[in-house]
Design goal:
Blueprint: H1 2-13, E1 29-36, H2 43-54, E2 58-67, E3 69-71, H3 72-86, E4 91-100, H4 102-107, E5 112-115, E6 120-122, E7 127-128, H5 134-140, H6 164-189, H7 193-199, E8 204-206, H8 207-212, E9 218-219, H9 222-234, E10 244-247, H10 257-270, E11 289-292
Parallel strand pairs: 1-2, 1-10, 2-4, 4-5, 4-6, 5-9
Antiparallel strand pairs: 3-11, 6-8, 7-11
Helix pairs in contact: 2-3, 6-7
Length: 294
Amino acid sequence: MAVLAIIIGLLAVSAVTINNKTFSFRSNHIATIKVEGVIEGDERLIQQLTKIEKADHVKGLIVQINSPGGGVKASDDIYLALRKIAERKPVAAVMQSVAASGGYLSAIGSDKIFASGNTITGSIGVIYSWPEYVELLNKVGVKMQEVKSSPLKASPNPATAMTDDARKQMEIMVKDSYDWFVNLVMERRSFDMATTLRLANGRIFSGRQALVEKLIDSIGDTEDAKKWVVEELKKDDANQNDLNLIDWTPNKFDENPFSEYVKMSINNGLGVQVFNPQITKKLHTTGLMAIMSY
């Protein structure tokens, strides 16, 4: 009985982490999901967005962004996932304290962007950074030796001085990602190239400034975004007034290794996969190349 009580308690605490098939009885609703902190490549977040895309009882999505940016690939993954959802249902973004660089890239994956007047946004650009401690090594008498197949292999290397050729290659990489970012902003915000380049010089904007520059659509919060989603849904079905907001953000309970072990034990004990354990979750970093506001 004690074990049964523990299992019931864990089921109650972790209900949001249960396989979404269990929630097929849910009524129609609007999903919300949070993109918070440095964007580093969250597999669970992308999985949730994929489930939102496919879930018929989810009629719309509001993505709440509070991020200074992050990795190029990780930000692009969120953007692409939001565009897939937007093909089937209305998607709004709500910028909170900061939604800059990769955070702004995520936002333009939606079809309507809201922000507060004091939100920090913009910072459209790409940065490739790394430490260089070759002079420190020289001072302490440590010399880095290497044999490589070509001069640009494994460059830049923090332990060796950067060559002109390596710097040029990094500049080419940054320019390529920057052009990609600029073209996305131009397409999604319906700018001409001159306007986009004027805004995409790395500077930040307040929400009020961003509205004037048409980087966002409206000053507003989650409730305003909900009203917009409902109005979009009413274009096809007038009976969409009573949709609740349900948070689909991956539960932080999943981040505890002990909880993952407990969930695996429950699955094994019951003989069915009630939980989706993340024991094999990989560690991610922003990588060297990032779209980020500092």
